[in-house]
User: Which sequence fits this backbone?
């Protein structure tokens, strides 16, 4: 029995998809598929009208003819919906203007040309429909805006079919025209004779692998596959994806934990340093308090030579503000205090003593 296989099915590059499509064929009655069929039909009607010499073409009539040519209730419903109709009119008009600007000679132009290639060794007929073919160029209209690997592969397989059917010779130009935006987005490519050989090998391998116990070929588009709930790999991939998601979440949490721990250690180290500094200040404050307060003063004050307890009365002559300023200056210096920083009252008393060094006085200890 000869099996018929569409070009669109081959673009999935998945043996399991090919196998399941033969058991559960798609009818293309989804909203997006129906809209695309409607627009494609209207564009084809428009190009045929141009090739026939008509100049005054009604876009609304083209959409009406396309809707009547399809036995699809969704398309007929969209015809009466203003939003769908306006968008369809915009796309058809954009496509026809693009076609006119190409300046194609009317000879040998293919519009919605059906291609069928029999692979006798595989008992399979590959079926495809060219949106537009002229010279050595294949053009495909797209009603969306996003490009995909499947779109590029689809045109390459069309090039392979035209070559095997002796319609075109390589190098063959392939063009995708995306109509979803205000201006058409055009993506071009070239298929060489070497490319055609590679595509033929890929097609034959896919057909062979789809016959007995086909193995799924996972890709980023698996979640959009029409047969995902019949695919044994989908549920495993879904479970693995869930596990990977949990691992990534946990990994992120651990990374935060390491960062918090590092920050905590830094804060702890800083706290220890502050504690040491605070203790030194406390000890210094206690020592100075004893010096300033006669009742708690040590028997002597140490400087480069020796300060006797006779100095204490001089300190007591300072005002509280002067004592406070002296204390601050003493705290700011590690080893010595300059005589210029000593309060005037104390400085005059100290300079009257011969055993005191007038240039530097050691800090109280």
Assistant:
């Amino acid at each position: 029995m000869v099996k018929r296989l569409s070009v669109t099915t081959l673009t999935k590059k998945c043996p399991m998809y090919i196998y399941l499509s033969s058991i559960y064929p798609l009818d293309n009655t989804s909203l997006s598929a129906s809209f695309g069929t409607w627009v494609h039909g209207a564009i084809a009607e428009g190009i045929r009208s141009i090739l026939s010499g008509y100049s005054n073409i009604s876009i609304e009539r083209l959409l009406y003819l396309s809707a009547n040519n399809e036995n699809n209730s969704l398309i007929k419903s969209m015809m009466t919906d203003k939003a769908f109709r306006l968008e369809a009119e915009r796309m058809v008009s954009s496509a026809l203007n693009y076609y006119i600007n190409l300046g194609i000679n009317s000879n040998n132009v293919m519009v919605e040309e059906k291609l069928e290639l029999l692979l006798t060794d595989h008992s399979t007929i590959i079926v495809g429909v060219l949106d537009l073919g002229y010279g050595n160029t294949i053009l495909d209209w797209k009603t969306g805006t996003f490009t995909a690997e499947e779109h590029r592969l689809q045109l390459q397989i069309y090039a392979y079919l035209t070559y095997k059917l002796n319609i075109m010779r390589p190098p063959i130009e392939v063009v995708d025209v995306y109509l979803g935006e205000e201006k058409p987005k055009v993506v071009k490519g070239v298929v060489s004779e070497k490319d055609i050989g590679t595509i033929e090998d890929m097609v034959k391998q896919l057909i062979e692998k789809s016959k007995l116990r086909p193995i799924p070929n996972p890709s980023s588009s698996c979640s959009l596959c029409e047969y995902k709930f019949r695919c044994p790999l989908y549920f495993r991939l879904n479970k693995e994806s869930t596990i990977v998601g949990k691992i990534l979440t946990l990994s992120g949490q651990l990374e935060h934990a390491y960062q918090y721990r590092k920050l905590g250690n830094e804060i702890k180290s800083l706290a220890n340093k502050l504690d040491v500094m605070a203790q030194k200040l406390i000890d210094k404050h206690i020592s100075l308090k004893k010096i300033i307060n006669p009742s708690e003063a040590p028997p002597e004050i140490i400087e480069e030579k020796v300060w006797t307890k006779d100095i204490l009365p001089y300190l007591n002559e300072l005002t509280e503000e002067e004592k406070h300023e002296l204390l601050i200056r003493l705290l700011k210096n590690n080893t010595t205090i300059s005589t210029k920083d000593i309060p005037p009252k104390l400085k005059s008393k100290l300079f009257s003593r011969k055993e005191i060094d007038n240039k530097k006085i050691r800090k109280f200890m």
